[in-house]
């Protein structure tokens, strides 16, 4: 029986090309087994070690803070983010991540812009009137120790892309979305009002201890 290699003019790959293809196949198989092996411990056999060779942290600047942290809200949100690719099935290209995001938002009063007219005291120092800016909310700060991915579903192309990234773009997307939802929840939680109430109570207690009988605190 005549084979393709026996036919006249049949092209054969050079020996070095066949070796190169074989090496690439073996490397890909090792990486895939290390990442997606269902056998416990088999991934660790092919996995590498992580070495932290970072240099020391450098102080770039110092900034004085002129704000009173009056309240902190702790929040948790479950993010279910799904991304589909046009004209491709989810098994080929698409992601779905279920992520639990836990973080905090602070409510504070900025005291840096207070001037002479912001605080008024009567002649016998028994009455004080203070006008402050309204409390504002800081940006949501996710806690990495309490935030985690519950499940990840990846298409084939997305899995191959994740092989070359320690922090895939999908994780960054759910973290950003979790912080956004926490910010929205903080605005509707009454945290700013709580910060205003706590700031008023702090100033009243402080000035009463200094001998002021009447303390008026306003915001605006």
Describe it:
Pfam families: DUF4230. It is a single chain. By secondary structure, this protein is of the alpha+beta class. It has two domains: 13-47; 66-219, no CATH class. It has helices spanning 15-36, 42-46, 156-162, 169-187, 191-209, and strands spanning 67-84, 94-110, 119-121, 127-132, 136-137, 141-142, 148-154, 214-219. Strands 1, 2, 5, 6 and 7 form a five-stranded antiparallel β-sheet that branches. A three-stranded mixed β-sheet has the order 3-4-8, with helices on one face. Strand 3 and strand 4 (127-132) form a beta hairpin. It is elongated and about 105 Å long.
Brief summary:
This protein has 220 residues and is of the alpha+beta class.
Secondary-structure map:
Blueprint: H1 15-36, H2 42-46, E1 67-84, E2 94-110, E3 119-121, E4 127-132, E5 136-137, E6 141-142, E7 148-154, H3 156-162, H4 169-187, H5 191-209, E8 214-219
Parallel strand pairs: 4-8
Antiparallel strand pairs: 1-2, 2-5, 2-6, 2-7, 3-4
Q: In one word, what is the shape?
A: elongated
Q: Oligomerization state of this entry?
A: single chain
The end-to-end distance, rounded to whole angstroms, is: 95 Å
pLDDT average, as an integer?
79
Radius of gyration: 31 Å
Structure summary, number of beta strands: 8
InterPro entries: DUF4230 (IPR025324)
Transmembrane segments: 15-33
Keywords: Membrane, Transmembrane, Transmembrane helix
Protein name: DUF4230 domain-containing protein
Give the tags:
five-stranded antiparallel beta sheet, 2 domains, disordered N terminus, 5 helices, alpha+beta, 28% strand
């Amino acid at each position: 029986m005549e084979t393709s290699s026996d036919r006249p003019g049949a092209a054969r790959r050079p020996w070095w090309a066949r070796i190169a293809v074989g090496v690439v196949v073996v490397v890909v198989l090792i990486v895939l087994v290390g990442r997606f092996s269902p056998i416990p411990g088999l991934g660790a056999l092919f996995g590498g070690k992580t070495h932290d060779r970072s240099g020391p942290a450098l102080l770039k600047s110092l900034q004085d803070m002129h704000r009173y942290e009056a309240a902190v809200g702790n929040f948790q949100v479950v993010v279910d983010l799904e991304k589909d690719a046009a004209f491709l099935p989810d098994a080929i290209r698409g992601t779905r991540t279920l992520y639990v995001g836990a973080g905090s938002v602070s409510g504070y009063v900025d005291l840096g812009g207070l001037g002479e007219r912001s605080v008024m005291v009567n002649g016998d120092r028994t009455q004080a009137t203070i006008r402050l800016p309204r409390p504002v909310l800081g940006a949501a700060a996710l806690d990495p120790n309490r935030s985690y991915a519950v499940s990840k579903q990846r298409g084939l192309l997305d899995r191959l892309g994740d092989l070359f990234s320690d922090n895939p773009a999908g994780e960054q997307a759910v973290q950003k979305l979790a912080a956004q939802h926490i910010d929205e929840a903080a605005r509707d939680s009454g945290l700013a009002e709580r910060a205003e109430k706590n700031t008023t109570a702090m100033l009243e207690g402080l000035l009463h201890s200094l001998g002021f009988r009447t303390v008026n605190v306003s915001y605006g």
